[in-house]
Specification:
The chain is an alpha/beta fold. The protein has one domain (12-238): NAD(P)-binding Rossmann-like Domain (Rossmann fold). The chain has helices spanning 12-17, 19-22, 28-37, 49-58, 92-103, 121-125, 138-151, 178-181, 196-214, and strands spanning 39-43, 63-67, 108-112, 130-133, 155-161, 164-170, 223-228, 233-238. An eight-stranded mixed beta sheet has the order 3-2-1-4-5-6-7-8, with helices on both faces. The radius of gyration is 17 Å and the shape is globular. The protein starts with 11 loop residues before the first helix and ends in a 17-residue tail after the last strand. The structure holds zinc ion (ZN).
């Protein structure tokens, strides 16, 4: 990993706040400095975005950008724990900032209330070190996937449905990209979600992000993790690049 920004120095307060992190093998002060120096772009402040950003915030990610153009609705509150009844109608990114800044006043939270499109994604993501996919639709995920490839930064992908979840760590062209794995989008639908399911998978997205930033452990590069909450099983499958992928393969630029 190489944070694009200058290495931040830990304050005495940081050393106390993140003491239990720095005790993790391989993490230490250097790892925590990398986390503090990082800019993470989280796309979506919903079911996945809630636990992901809350754990990235308390982990001390120095600059946390959170992008969502929608507003919380009552039917979101079974899972979107960044928000509460008093935030209904507010922009989700702005509501997220209130929650995240209260959890950790020492970090910079950047709320972005713009809809992510192919035309603006490069500017919105800016100098981020990593993109975290907390979206609920594939068209936007594809836009983020291509942006990550152009910028040469990783893209943590996850999704949930009911009591199931999926996750992988994409750093294309080294790994398969999202199009290699899911060549066409599933039809849009209002799908069932147990609130704690994005809790499980969002926490894993935060862990993957922090592992990449610190260099601790192995990410889910080239593997798809599938969580079946009905049978309570985690299974991982190897992934292959599609040589004809229109985004990262031999077909790139021809589609
Ligand atoms: Zn691909």
């Amino acid at each position: 990993m190489g944070s694009r920004s200058e290495r931040a120095v830990l304050s005495d307060e940081d050393k106390e706040r993140y003491h239990r992190h720095m005790m993790i093998a391989g993490w230490g002060e250097t790892g925590q400095e990398r986390v503090k120096s990082a800019r993470v772009f989280v796309a979506g402040a919903g079911g996945l975005g809630s636990p992901t950003t809350m754990y990235l915030a308390v982990a001390g990610v120095g600059r946390l950008a959170i992008c969502d153009c929608d507003s919380p609705e009552l039917s979101n509150l079974n899972r979107q724990i960044l928000h509460d009844d008093s935030r209904i109608g507010m922009n989700k990114a702005k509501s997220a900032k209130l929650t995240l800044s209260a959890l950790n006043p020492a970090i910079e939270v950047e709320p972005i209330s713009t809809r992510i499109e192919a035309e603006n994604v490069d500017e919105l993501v800016g100098e981020a070190d990593i993109i975290v996919d907390c979206m609920d639709n594939f068209p936007t995920r594809y836009v983020l996937n291509e942006c990550a490839l152009r910028k040469g930064i990783p893209f943590v992908h996850a999704s949930v449905w009911g009591l199931e979840g999926k996750l992988t760590f994409i750093h294309s062209p080294e790994t398969p990209c999202l199009r290699c794995i899911f060549p066409s989008p599933p039809p849009p639908e209002v799908f069932p979600v147990l609130g704690a399911a994005p809790g499980v998978i969002g926490c894993l997205e935060a862990i993957e992000t922090l592992k990449y930033l610190t260099g601790v452990g192995e990410t889910m590069k080239g593997r798809l993790l599938v969580w079946d909450g009905v049978e309570m099983e985690f299974t991982s499958y190897p992934l292959r690049k599609d040589p004809k992928c229109p985004v990262c393969g031999g077909g790139a630029g021809q589609g």
